[in-house]
From TrEMBL:
The protein's name in its UniProt record: DUF1573 domain-containing protein
Signal peptide range in chain numbering: none
InterPro entries xref list: DUF1573, Ig-like_fold
Pfam families cross-referenced by the UniProt entry: DUF1573
Taxonomic source organism: Maribacter sedimenticola
Domain of life: Bacteria
Amino acid sequence: MKKIVLIVGLVSMVAFTSCKENASSKIKSDNVAEAAERDEAAKAVPVMSFEKAEHDFGTIEQGTPQETVFKFTNTGNAPLIITDAKSSCGCTVPNPPKDPIAPGESGELKVNFNGSGQNQVTKTITVTANTEKGSELLRIKAFVNPKGAAPLGPVK
């Protein structure tokens, strides 16, 4: 019995140690270069930098269409692609650029507001893009007086 255990032990020791090869010899330099290139490309992301994140139309009459432009610059190191722009309601319509914005280039996001609502109105625009955060939040606001009413507006 002792001989069998000793023989099995020696055989298994030879079997497990004979398969060990130098692990570093299995690494292909082409794969290392390709992985480094892929990792470097993954670090390249666009950054959307807006001149302003909020626009105040002030006091407007109800039903008066308004328009503003949010200017931004791609301060990242990859092309910026805006995939979607949605507002918090149907009374606000964002119109983003369709083409990619190269690093260092600027673009404009036009926003139309139909002037609906009453009193203080605030709407948000969510811009979805290939940035690290994935989305940016913009805001418009206005004090809407009812049509034909005397201008009230906020007290300053």
